[in-house]
């Protein structure tokens, strides 16, 4: 019985010690989404793309299919949103942030894009990984919901 109590105590301490780290991770990840939203609304694709992993392994999956690589993803954004009118005003909503492992999280949410060339509403799923203390998007799946 004593061993069981010690195990429960040990498990409780371990669980509570992880909670603050997860809270900080989630806050940092929400900051990445805030940077994205602000950059988008400032028509600043360069800052927006800084939230992505600058690698040929970056994966974007949208209505036009899979795009691999940071530069290809940036080019896709520029082609799909060629003007300030196409960028419009973006609102991101995070519905769930789930830990995958110590250095990776999955974020599911929604986006609302208000613009003069037609509004868009959709869903997204991001996978973020921590590199040298910074969270970067390594995979992005987005699709419009009509």
What does this structure look like?
The protein has 146 residues and is of the alpha+beta class. The chain has one domain (2-144): Nuclear Transport Factor 2, Chain: A, CATH 3.10.450.50. Helix content is 41%, strand content 38%. Strands 2-1-6-5-4-3 form a six-stranded mixed sheet, with helices on one face. A hairpin with a 5-residue loop joins strand 4 (104-114) and strand 5.
Give, in order, the helices and strands: HHEEHHEEEE
Q: What is the number of domains?
A: 1
Q: Helix/strand-derived class?
A: alpha+beta
User: What fraction of the residues are assigned to beta strands by DSSP?
Assistant: 35-45%
Helical residues, percent: 40-55%
Number of helical segments with 4 or more residues: 4
Annotation, overall tally of beta strands: 6
General form:
globular
Q: What average pLDDT do the residues reach? A: 89
Unreliable stretches: 1-18
What is the level 1 CATH name? Alpha Beta
Largest beta sheet: what is the strand line-up? 2-1-6-5-4-3
Spatial gap, N to C terminus? 58 Å
CATH architectural category: Roll
CATH topology: Nuclear Transport Factor 2, Chain: A
What is the alpha-carbon Rg in Å? 18 Å
Please describe the biggest sheet, giving its number of strands, its sense, and whether it closes into a barrel: 6 strands, mixed
């Amino acid at each position: 019985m004593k061993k069981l109590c010690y195990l429960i105590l040990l498990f409780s301490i371990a669980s509570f010690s992880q909670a603050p780290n997860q809270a900080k991770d989630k806050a940092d990840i929400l900051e990445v989404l805030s940077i994205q939203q602000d950059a988008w609304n400032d028509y600043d694709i360069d800052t927006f793309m800084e939230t992505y992993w600058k690698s040929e392994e970056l994966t974007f999956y949208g209505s036009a299919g899979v795009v691999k690589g940071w530069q290809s993803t940036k080019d896709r954004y520029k082609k799909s949103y060629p003007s300030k009118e196409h960028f419009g005003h973006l609102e991101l909503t995070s519905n769930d942030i789930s830990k995958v492992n110590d250095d990776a999280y999955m974020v599911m949410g929604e986006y609302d894009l208000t613009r003069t060339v037609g509004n868009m509403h959709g869903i997204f799923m991001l996978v973020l990984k921590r590199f040298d203390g910074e969270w970067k998007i390594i995979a992005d799946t987005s699709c419009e919901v009509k």
